[in-house]
Amino acid sequence: MSLLRHFLIPIGVLAVAASGFLILTRSEQSDLSTRDGFFLVAASWVLVSLFGAVPLYTSGAIPQFVDAFFETMSGFTTTGASILTDIESLPRSMLFWRSLTHWLGGMGIIVLTVAIFPILGIGGLQLLKAEAPGPTVDKITPKVTETAKILWLTYFGLTAAETVLLLMGGMDLFDSLTHTFGTLATGGFSPKNTSVGFYASPFIHVVVTAFMVMAGVNFVMYYKLLTGRAIGILRDTELKSYLLIFAVGSLVVAFGLHRAGVYQTFGTSLRFGAFQAASILTTTGYVTADYAAWPAVSQAMLFILMFIGGCSGSTGGGIKVVRVVTLLKQGFTEMRYLLHPAASSA
After folding, report:
1. 3-class state of residue 338 by DSSP
2. Any idea of the CA torsion for 85, 86, 92, 96, to the nearest 10 degrees?
3. Interatomic CA distance for residues 323 and 329, integer angstroms
4. How confident is the model over 162-212, as pLDDT tens digits?
């Protein structure tokens, strides 16, 4: 009950503030400008992180409020940086909340808000544009609120699927949920000091690898898959480029490990290499081994993957694959123009 009190205080304050906001805005219909959208997004991250830090601070799990604020800001933004040195010493309730901030921030608190904004009489398109992790906003349906709901339902479905698979792999429910939150949000918070490396199970490593890759895919692709538009997925340049980058990166890392004799078999090298390639590419941050001790070629490949990131419209961070593809295409076009100016003008 004492732990529950640490959550009830910020919940109560937020409920009162939200009720007041609802009363003040219910009678008016307003549209947010682009500037309003960007401001509200930035302010939301700060406010939710401030309130989210309260349980960690008042429970004594993190004695300094600044440190607690850092931890929750890292969680909600799915950055994954942490001030904790002994993660397993924290109460399970605080570890669960710490991982839940990842899960909420992964799909975006603003996207969740957009889904319920019609209740407040506020248009959410500009808010979604400010929140969207890519060059454009790909609306699945004509109504932006329906788009947000579909994205969240997809997120729920992937969460349930990974949780069940991790349970089948031998994790308990608590560890399954917390690792799923960190995987799908591509944030990497783990309740274990040694991250996923705590588990020596190849099955768990493969499951987490697969879902990290899936989390880096544009979530619109899943909607197209569920609605029978698989041809559109196969023609998507960004998705094909993303999967190719992951495959090449995994193989390069694995060959480096196998050649250096870090692991006895190529299969084991591929398992560890693919896991770390997926973790770095999607900016998740989970680890199963000390890759700082890996050969230079494997480290170099991981270093390159770190700058690319996932697809637009995914929970992954980084530059985004679509921007890398666009940059390369533009570069090839410019080179072709310099070499054959007459052919390009024609």
Report:
1. helix
2. 30
3. 10
4. 999 999 999 999 999 999 999 999 999 999 999 999 999 999 999 999 999
Cβ neighbours around 84 below 10 Å, total: 17
Q: Phi then psi for 123, rounded to 5 degrees?
A: -75, 140
Specify the residue for token string 């619109």.
220
Element (H, E) at 122: strand 122-123
- 86 to each of 90, 95, 187, 194, 306, how far by Cα in Å? 8, 12, 18, 10, 26
Place of tokens 């909607």: 223
Residue owning tokens 């995987």: 183
Cβ 215 vs Cβ 310: under 8 Å: yes
| 3-class DSSP assignment, residue 291 | helix
Nearest CA among 123, 144, 155 for reference residue 40: 123
Closest by Cα among 98, 97, 102, 124 to 111: 124
Task: Give pLDDT tens digits for 214-251.
Answer: 999 988 888 888 877 777 788 888 899 999 999 999 99
CA–CA dist 158, 315 (Å, integer):
12
CA–CA separation, 94 vs 96, rounded Å?
A: 5
Alpha helix positions (H), the chain: 2-25, 34-58, 65-76, 92-107, 109-116, 125-131, 144-168, 173-184, 202-215, 219-226, 230-234, 237-259, 266-281, 296-308, 321-339, 341-345
DSSP letters along 215-273, please? HTS-HHHHHHHHTT-HHHHHT-HHHHHHHHHHHHHHHHHHHHHHHTTSSSSHHHHHHHH
**Would you say 102 and 189 are in contact if contact means Cβ atoms under 8 Å apart?**
yes
